[in-house]
Design a protein that fits this description.
Length: 228
């Protein structure tokens, strides 16, 4: 694995935006960090709340591997494996969020794009380390309450993310931390909200659900909610 180029900022609009806008000039792989983000980005156009000092906001930018199917699961597993070394054990909510004690503590955004014929990947990771107060609309947000060297933590996650691992390993480690299996979930399909039981993932980390009438369906993307 090539040595990771590290660039740290006090404030950015978004580490992923910076990585994407500067990918052509950056040595790859590069790790971009910021102490705060003024326009942190999540999946499906959502924002990621990024107050100063209390979170880890980072993006790893690197040349795309031959297959990009498991980028998000790979990142989720990497974050879990590193945090577990610190005595914190988050679980995964398909497809890209980490939860602890029923609260979302980490979001992951994987993006692939082409620059002058080169396929580039940016994986943005935001972890609520010590954030105590969240906007009202983020009722499901929480923190892992970890006091650590953020720079060291970011480097450890980047290094773990860039390790070469088999798809079988990633899927196995992802699935054993996936806390939604066997639970009733809500999801939106064709403009309607449906209820089903999450039963498994396939080799592409798509979610397999079983409807009340017994038929199964495979979800390749989208947001799900757990039925309480």
């Amino acid at each position: 694995m090539s040595k990771i180029n590290i660039i740290a900022f006090d404030s950015l609009s978004s580490t992923s935006t910076y990585a994407r806008e500067n990918a052509e000039m950056l040595p790859l792989p590069s790790l971009i960090t910021a102490n705060t983000q003024t326009a942190g980005r999540g999946r499906r156009g959502n924002s990621f709340y990024s107050p100063e000092n209390t979170g880890l906001y980072m993006t790893v930018v690197f040349e795309a591997p031959e297959s990009c199917d498991l980028l998000t699961p790979t990142a989720a597993v990497a974050v879990c494996e590193v945090l577990e070394k610190y005595g914190t054990y988050p679980k995964i909510k398909w497809v890209n969020d980490l939860f602890l004690n029923g609260k979302k503590v980490c979001g992951i955004l994987a993006e692939r794009f082409i620059i002058k014929g080169r396929a580039i990947v940016c994986i943005g990771i935001g972890i609520n380390l010590k954030t105590e107060v969240f906007p009202d609309e983020l009722a499901m947000a929480g923190s892992i309450n970890l006091d650590c060297d953020k720079s060291k933590l970011a480097e450890e996650i980047a290094e773990c993310l860039l390790k070469e691992r088999t798809n079988e390993y990633i899927l196995s480690e992802y699935k054993k931390r996936l806390f939604i299996l066997g639970k009733e979930i809500y999801f939106s399909k064709d403009g309607t909200v449906q209820t089903a039981c999450a039963v498994d993932i396939n080799k592409n980390c798509n979610l397999i659900v079983r409807h009340p009438d017994g038929r199964t369906q495979t979800l390749s993307s989208g947001e799900i909610s757990i039925k309480i």
